[in-house]
Design goal:
Blueprint: H1 9-21, H2 25-41, H3 47-63, H4 67-80, H5 85-97, H6 101-114, H7 119-136, H8 152-159, H9 163-182, H10 187-205, H11 209-222, H12 227-239, H13 243-256, H14 261-273, H15 277-290, H16 295-308
């Protein structure tokens, strides 16, 4: 007896997912299309569900090399649920395949505003930076369309997603760190890293700390050997109250340069905010052994000492 064909939106979507996993991308696209037609015929007011179906069908198009339809479906998905990471990443890949590098760059860095540890976005933005610099030189940023500012609500929506998404991000972050550390930068990459770091510094001066994090992250992709870039990114994390990330960056900065005074000071600040006063006090003491007359460090030590007593 033949198995019963899928008859509901959820069944069609599940069947599409299975076909996709089996590498049957054209069949999966047909199933997602049927699910979309059924959902729309029902007059559904569930934009999230409709957006996912468009995004899933876009993945099928991308696998089959149909970049134009991939872009259309991703754009439809994003119109329903703006700043969704999967359609942004899929559209960026399609733009990149079509050599529409400015548009791909915008989508990659938009993802990094939502979550700056997504490896595919970090790698993609770095590839696009390289391609754009090669094509347009130092004025490449003038060729970019405007980059949307991601609202806090979109970031919070990502934080509320199931734990599997966060596990995937943790894997991505580990891969990013391993890849960056294992690479010896060429002279060209070192120069690109320097330029991106300076752009990050300018953004910090203007108070644009989230965008500065993106620049420092791109810089570190090209060259992970700059202690100052890590400590600069740590400053941005401190301002944004991302204290654990600040600790991680300062630790990496100190691994590269054990006398980085700013890294000691910023890690001490982060530990203090996390109420880890012993670690904060230890960092301040290490700093003062290097610069005994550092006024801000002396003041911070007094504050931490009061919390310890």
């Amino acid at each position: 007896m033949a198995p019963k064909p899928p008859g509901s939106v959820e069944e069609l979507r599940a069947a599409g997912n299975q076909s996709f996993r089996n590498g049957q991308f054209a069949e999966a696209a047909k199933l997602y299309s049927r699910a979309l037609r059924m959902l729309q015929a029902q007059g559904s007011l569930d934009p999230e569900k409709e957006s996912v179906l468009f995004s899933n069908r876009a993945a099928c198009h991308l696998k089959d090399g149909n970049c134009i339809d991939c872009i259309k479906d991703c754009t439809s998905a994003l119109a329903l649920v703006p700043f969704s990471m999967k359609p942004l990443l899929r559209r960026a890949s399609a733009y990149e395949a079509l050599e529409k590098y400015p548009l791909a760059y915008v989508d990659y860095v938009t993802v990094l505003q939502i979550n700056n540890s997504v490896t595919s976005a970090l790698e993609g933005s770095s590839r696009m930076t390289r391609a754009l610099m090669d094509s347009f030189g130092s004025e490449w940023r003038l060729k970019l369309p405007s980059i949307p500012l991601v609202p806090i609500s979109a970031q919070k929506r990502w934080e509320c997603l199931p734990s599997e998404n966060h596990k995937e991000t943790a894997k991505s972050k580990s891969k990013e760190t391993t890849t960056a550390k294992s690479r010896v930068p060429s002279a060209g990459d070192a120069e690109r890293a320097r330029v991106l770091k300076e752009e990050g510094n300018e953004l910090v001066k203007k108070g644009n700390h989230k965008q500065a994090i993106e620049k420092y992250s791109e810089s570190l992709w090209f060259s992970s050997m700059e202690s100052a870039t890590y400590s600069n990114r740590a400053l941005c994390h401190l301002v944004l109250k991302q204290y654990k990330e600040a600790v991680k960056d300062c630790t990496e900065a100190l691994r590269l340069d054990g006398k980085n005074v700013k890294a000691f000071y910023r890690r001490a600040q982060a530990y203090k905010a996390l109420k880890d006063y012993k670690s904060s006090f230890a960092d301040i003491n290490s700093l003062l052994q290097i610069e005994p007359r550092n006024g801000p460090a002396q003041k911070l030590r007094q504050e931490v000492n009061r919390s310890l007593n």
